[in-house]
């Protein structure tokens, strides 16, 4: 006995509209919460300090840069902090030594430009070996 003669049998179907709405909300949420980082800077490997004291080499020139930007070469202050005078001071401090090592002791509050000036002066004086002094905490 078939009681449903006049009725057509409907096929079950999945309604995709609510699923698409939920997926769009998830996509919008992810787009708003994602941070986009731009790596336009340089990657720097910062030096670390050893706990042991390094032995002083006789071929070193100590260059100290104070917080105000004053430059001292082997604990004697220079009259000017421009690149030319620093270069001349490095040549005087090196004397007859060949290829000395310039050790830069820079105050934590000094400007980057002061340290770059010392590096540029060492390069123009013909001393490419530069080291930075650090201290352990």
Q: What is the top-level CATH class of the domain at 60-132?
A: Alpha Beta
Mean pLDDT figure: 81
Placed side by side, the strands forming the largest sheet appear as 3-2-1-4-5
Percent of sequence in beta strands: 5-15%
Q: Tally of extended strands?
A: 5
- Using only C-alpha atoms, the radius of gyration works out to 34 Å
Helix and strand content put the structural class at alpha/beta
Distance between the termini: 94 Å
CATH topology of the domain at 60-132: Nucleotidyltransferase, domain 5
Tell me the major beta sheet.
Answer: 5 strands, mixed
Low-confidence stretches: 42-47
Helix content: 25-40%
**What oligomeric state do the depicted chains represent?**
single chain
- CATH-level-2 architecture of the domain at 60-132: 2-Layer Sandwich
List the helices and strands and how they pair.
Blueprint lengths: L16 H17 L26 E6 L5 E3 L2 E2 L5 H12 L6 E6 L5 H14 L4 E3 L5
Parallel strand pairs: 1-4, 4-5
Antiparallel strand pairs: 1-2, 2-3
Characterize the structure shown.
The chain is built from three helices and five strands, in the order αβββαβαβ. With 137 residues, it is α/β, with parallel strands linked by helices. It has a domain at 60-132: Nucleotidyltransferase, domain 5. Helix 2 (83-94) packs across helix 3 (112-125). The longest helix has 17 residues, at 17-33. Residues 42-47 have low confidence and may be disordered.
């Amino acid at each position: 006995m078939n009681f449903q003669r006049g009725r057509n049998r409907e096929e079950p179907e999945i309604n995709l509209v609510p699923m698409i709405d939920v997926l769009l909300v998830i996509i919008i949420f992810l787009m708003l919460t994602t941070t986009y980082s731009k790596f336009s800077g340089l990657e720097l490997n910062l030096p670390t300090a050893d706990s042991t004291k390094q032995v002083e080499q006789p071929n070193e020139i100590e260059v100290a840069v104070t917080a105000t930007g004053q430059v001292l070469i082997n604990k004697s202050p220079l009259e000017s902090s421009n690149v030319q005078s620093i270069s001349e001071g490095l040549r005087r401090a090196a004397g007859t030594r060949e290829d000395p090592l310039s050790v830069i002791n820079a105050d934590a509050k000094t400007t980057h430009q002061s340290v770059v000036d010392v590096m540029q002066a060492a390069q123009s004086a013909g001393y490419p070996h530069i080291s930075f002094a650090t201290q352990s905490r």
